[in-house]
């Protein structure tokens, strides 16, 4: 999971992976790191999401879950789940990103400013204008004939001026101590808010080392309440984006991302052919 925050406190709960396709197109192998990254001038809070959700960093609790489900099956195989209960620090690696610049912040283990259960805790970015990165491992998996579900909950406890809360699926070769903004990933998903113009859900898929941004504008929530963000990627190359279990966007990955090369390419040397009839 990854995120960026500036100007206010925020809370988020981590990603859920349920169902199969760690890669957007075709069969592949899933990443085996889940990371939380945030740069913030405000605090980031994570709170425990509903069933099959993995949370990400902010000023509340974070719950993480990774699972794979077959197309015909109702149940899913859970590969990673994190409720941030006692012992969570033994499962997560705090990155040293920005530490040499004295810009690395400290994570808090807390239930946040507002909560329904004081024991329902997560990790919180504790200082404004700091950078945060943390990651955890999960087993390798295959996405063949499976559906991938990535889900997490975000809560911004203060009015957010500029920042983002993203979930990232990382590769197994990542140096977790160096996890940061330039670390390669397979998927990035989550809300991005900055000023009046940017209030959307980022969905970026990576293929052959290139990041592809979704071409659709999917508005995100901007209040101070908890919201569940869900990304579903199916083996038939269709996808859905849900907020609070309500579908906000769906369609074909081939149509809504520039992952495949265009069917036609303009030829700057091409000239219009003139046709005439001689009598």
From TrEMBL:
One GO process term, biological-process aspect: protein folding
Signal sequence residues: none
Tree of life domain: Eukaryota
Transmembrane segments: 60-80
SS bonds (residue pairs): 162-194
CC terms in the record's Gene Ontology section: endoplasmic reticulum membrane
Database matches in InterPro entries: Calret/calnex (IPR001580), Calret/calnex_CS (IPR018124), ConA-like_dom_sf (IPR013320)
GO molecular function: calcium ion binding; unfolded protein binding
Pfam families assigned: Calreticulin
Classification via Gene3D superfamilies: 2.60.120.200
The entry's keywords: Chaperone, Disulfide bond, Endoplasmic reticulum, Membrane, Transmembrane, Transmembrane helix
Family per similarity comment: Belongs to the calreticulin family.
Function statement: Molecular calcium-binding chaperone promoting folding, oligomeric assembly and quality control in the ER via the calreticulin/calnexin cycle. This lectin may interact transiently with almost all of the monoglucosylated glycoproteins that are synthesized in the ER.
Record's protein name: Calreticulin
């Amino acid at each position: 999971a990854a995120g960026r925050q500036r100007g206010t406190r925020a809370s988020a709960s981590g990603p859920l992976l349920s169902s199969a396709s760690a890669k957007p197109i075709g069969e592949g192998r899933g990443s085996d790191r889940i990371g939380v990254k945030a740069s913030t001038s405000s605090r980031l809070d994570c709170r425990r999401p509903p069933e099959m959700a993995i949370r990400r960093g902010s000023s509340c609790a974070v719950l993480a879950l990774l699972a794979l489900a077959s197309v015909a099956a109702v149940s899913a195989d859970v590969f990673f789940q994190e409720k941030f209960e006692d012992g969570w620090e033994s499962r997560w690696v705090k990155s040293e990103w920005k530490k040499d610049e004295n810009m690395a912040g400290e994570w808090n283990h807390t239930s946040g400013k507002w909560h329904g259960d004081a024991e329902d805790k997560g990790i919180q970015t504790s200082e404004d204008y700091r950078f945060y990165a943390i990651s955890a491992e999960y087993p390798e998996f295959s996405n063949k004939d499976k559906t991938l579900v990535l889900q997490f909950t975000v809560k911004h406890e203060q009015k957010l001026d500029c920042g983002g809360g993203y979930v990232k699926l990382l590769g197994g070769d990542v140096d977790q101590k160096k996890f940061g903004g330039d670390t390669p990933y397979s998927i990035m998903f989550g809300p991005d808010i900055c000023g009046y113009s940017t209030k959307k859900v980022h969905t970026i898929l990576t293929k052959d080392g290139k990041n592809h941004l979704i071409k659709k504008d999917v508005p995100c929530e901007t209040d101070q309440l908890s919201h569940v963000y869900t990304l579903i990627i199916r083996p038939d190359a269709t996808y859905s984006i849900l907020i609070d279990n309500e579908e906000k966007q769906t369609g074909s990955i081939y149509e809504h991302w520039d992952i495949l090369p265009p069917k036609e390419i303009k030829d700057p040397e091409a000239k219009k052919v003139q046709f005439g009839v001689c009598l």
